[in-house]
């Protein structure tokens, strides 16, 4: 079984964010999956231009997305939506997203970022991606990620395991399809 390349995108760039801690927690779960090569792409470091001009940062970003077989967006919920930096990331590439599965790890207060995930499902559908049904939602995230340690509830841990299995199935199948025929979109 050949490895699949998994790119975890940290969607928040705000000062004081906990998005990187959430992404690192998910990455720990993901590396346990046999045959997964996991990397984390933090949008703080990507420096994507908001005017969508082509820069070396944009080219590097597109290359990383192009290499990925599976994508995971780690997103907070800001004002009942997703962060602008994450939307900029989705809009900074086009063909590189196509025919690839994506999963969502959301976090926030009592809603756990679920509204951001539901809005992002519409965005990725337009990019010809396959969003897996299972998602991970971390409620009261600031309480769960403090002092450098994660205390994630069992429901989120279970959802994580299920999402990883769905992503693996779609990731391998779509990679094989992309290798044998050009996506017709």
Q: How would you describe the overall organization of this protein?
A:
- By secondary structure, the protein is of the alpha/beta class.
- It has a single domain (4-180), classed as Rossmann fold (3-Layer(aba) Sandwich).
- Helices cover 43% and strands 20% of the residues.
- The chain has helices spanning 19-30, 43-46, 56-67, 84-91, 114-126, 141-144, 154-180, and strands spanning 4-10, 36-42, 70-76, 101-107, 130-131, 136-138, 145-146, 149-150.
- Strands 1, 2, 3, 4, 5 and 6 form a 6-stranded parallel beta sheet that branches.
- The protein starts with a strand and ends in a 5-residue tail after the last helix.
- 39% of the residues are buried.
- The model has no long low-confidence stretch (mean pLDDT 95).
Keywords:
43% helix; alpha/beta; Rossmann fold; 185 residues; two-stranded antiparallel ribbon; single chain
Short description:
The chain has about 180 residues and is of the alpha/beta class. It has a single domain, classed as Flavodoxin domain (Rossmann fold), CATH 3.40.50.360. It contains 7 helices and 8 strands.
| Overall number of strands | 8
Number of helices: 7
* Proper CATH architecture: 3-Layer(aba) Sandwich
Task: Look at the helices and sheets and give the structural class.
Answer: alpha/beta
User: Helical content, roughly?
Assistant: 40-55%
Share in β-strands: 15-25%
Give the helix/strand layout.
Layout: E1 4-10, H1 19-30, E2 36-42, H2 43-46, H3 56-67, E3 70-76, H4 84-91, E4 101-107, H5 114-126, E5 130-131, E6 136-138, H6 141-144, E7 145-146, E8 149-150, H7 154-180
């Amino acid at each position: 079984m050949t490895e699949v390349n998994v790119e975890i995108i940290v969607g928040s760039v705000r000062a004081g964010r906990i998005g990187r801690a959430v992404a690192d927690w998910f990455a720990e779960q993901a590396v346990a999956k046999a045959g997964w090569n996991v990397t984390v792409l933090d949008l703080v470091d990507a420096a994507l231009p908001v005017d969508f001009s082509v820069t070396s940062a944009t080219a590097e970003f597109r290359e990383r997305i192009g290499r990925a077989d599976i994508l995971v967006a780690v997103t907070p919920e800001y004002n009942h939506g997703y962060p602008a930096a994450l939307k900029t990331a989705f809009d900074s590439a086009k063909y590189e997203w196509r025919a690839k599965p994506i999963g969502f790890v959301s976090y926030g207060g009592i809603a756990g970022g679920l509204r951001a995930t539901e809005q992002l499902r519409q965005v990725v559908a337009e990019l010809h991606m396959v969003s897996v049904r299972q998602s991970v939602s971390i409620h009261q995230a600031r309480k769960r990620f403090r002092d450098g340690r994660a205390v994630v509830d069992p429901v989120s841990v279970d959802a994580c395991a299920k999402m990883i299995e769905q992503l693996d199935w779609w990731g391998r199948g779509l990679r094989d399809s992309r290798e044998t025929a050009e996506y017709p979109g």
